[in-house]
């Protein structure tokens, strides 16, 4: 979040910048509930809220900066396996391991291609979800006027 605010401060046309695009990395757990990692899920929901708020036309008209989010599902990595063991209770690790064993692998290449898609066609405030073996899709939420 701090990085997004710093980027707006440096990139904003109202601050002498040229405008541009800021893409935040959230997670599918920022748009769905996650009983295995409630704090992780809450932080990802916060990113979505920030993107939707700063991605409003009000802010774009001031700064010339689009704000978007990429929301990949689980990418199985060694980092994930190690962090699960350190961060969660044995019960959560067991349940999460069972849950993730049935998931299709989402590759870094798929996430990268989706990032390009978001850059090329995503509107301001867009949140693009990326899941294995599915076409990336945008999630919408009501925006107050």
Task: Give a quick summary of the entry.
48% of the residues lie in helices and 14% in strands.
Draw up the topology in text:
Blueprint: H1 2-11, E1 20-25, H2 38-54, H3 57-63, E2 65-72, H4 78-87, H5 90-101, H6 108-121, E3 127-130, E4 137-138
Parallel strand pairs: 1-2, 2-3
Antiparallel strand pairs: 3-4
Low-confidence stretches: none
Coarse morphology: elongated
- Tell me about the biggest sheet? 4 strands, mixed
Tell me the series of helices and strands, N- to C-terminal.
Answer: HEHHEHHHEE
Order of strands, main sheet, comes to 1-2-3-4
The CATH superfamily appears as NAD(P)-binding Rossmann-like Domain
Remind me, CATH topology?
Rossmann fold
> What is the percentage of strand-forming residues?
5-15%
Estimate nothing, just give the exact number of structural domains.
1
Number of E-type strands? 4
- The percentage helix is 40-55%
Mean pLDDT: 88
**Terminal-residue CA separation:** 23 Å
- Structural class label: alpha/beta
Keywords: Oxidoreductase
Enzyme class: oxidoreductase
Family: Belongs to the short-chain dehydrogenases/reductases (SDR) family.
Pfam families: adh_short
Structure description:
- Helices cover 48% and strands 14% of the residues.
- By secondary structure, it is of the alpha/beta class.
- It has a single domain (2-138), classed as 3-Layer(aba) Sandwich (Rossmann fold), CATH 3.40.50.
- It has a four-stranded mixed sheet with strand order 1-2-3-4, with helices on both faces.
- A hairpin with a 6-residue loop joins strand 3 (127-130) and strand 4 (137-138).
- The longest helix is centred in the N-terminal third of the chain and has 17 residues, at 38-54.
- The protein is elongated, with a radius of gyration of 17 Å.
